[in-house]
Design brief:
The protein has 154 residues and is α+β, with helices and mostly antiparallel strands. Helix content is 30%, strand content 19%. It contains five helices and six strands. The protein has a three-stranded antiparallel β-sheet, with no helix packed on it. It has a three-stranded antiparallel β-sheet with strand order 4-5-6, with no helix packed on it. Strand 1 and strand 2 form a beta hairpin. The longest helix has 13 residues.
């Protein structure tokens, strides 16, 4: 059984108080339900290099398909799409299934530029889509955690 308790915030200047839920062997923060709360915390913790929150003062809470919902309950069409990384939208069932399978199999992910059988299969499939003359001399560079780890052949 869980309960809600009020405690003093441990980070001065971030918030006067925080709500916490007790359960599962410890305390966990209970999310506030408004954009202002999250944007204030972001401003106190992150550098001024961030740009999107200046023009789009939103705290996104959920995403499904092409839609996102902010902490105030307003729905939007996500025209940013993760700066292009979400071509299939938020929580696409094929992507969710692939990630769940990756986790269930214990496959390592975020291996930087170390190879894995899954990464090798992804590169093979990608090169198979290229014109043969181009693919013969092509090289690929993984710049960081790319999501390719979750790819799997159907």
């Amino acid at each position: 059984m869980q309960s809600i308790v009020e405690v003093e915030a441990e980070s001065p200047g971030v918030a006067d108080e925080a709500w916490w839920t007790a359960g599962n062997g410890g305390l966990a923060p209970v999310p506030r339900e408004d954009n202002a709360y999250y944007l204030g915390r972001q401003s106190a913790r992150e550098s001024n290099a961030r740009s999107y929150p200046r023009r789009l003062p939103l705290a996104l809470k959920q995403g499904r398909g092409i839609h996102v919902e902010d902490a105030d309950g307003r729905r939007y069409i996500d025209c940013l799409a993760g700066a292009g990384a979400l071509a299939l939208g938020h929580h696409h069932p094929v992507v969710v299934e692939a990630i769940q399978q990756l986790l269930a199999d214990g496959t390592p992910f975020q291996t930087l530029d170390l190879t894995t059988p899954v990464k090798d299969a992804f590169v093979e499939e990608l090169f198979a889509c290229l014109p043969p003359d181009f693919a013969a001399n092509a090289r690929i560079q993984f710049c960081g955690p790319s999501g390719a780890d979750a790819w799997r052949r159907r």
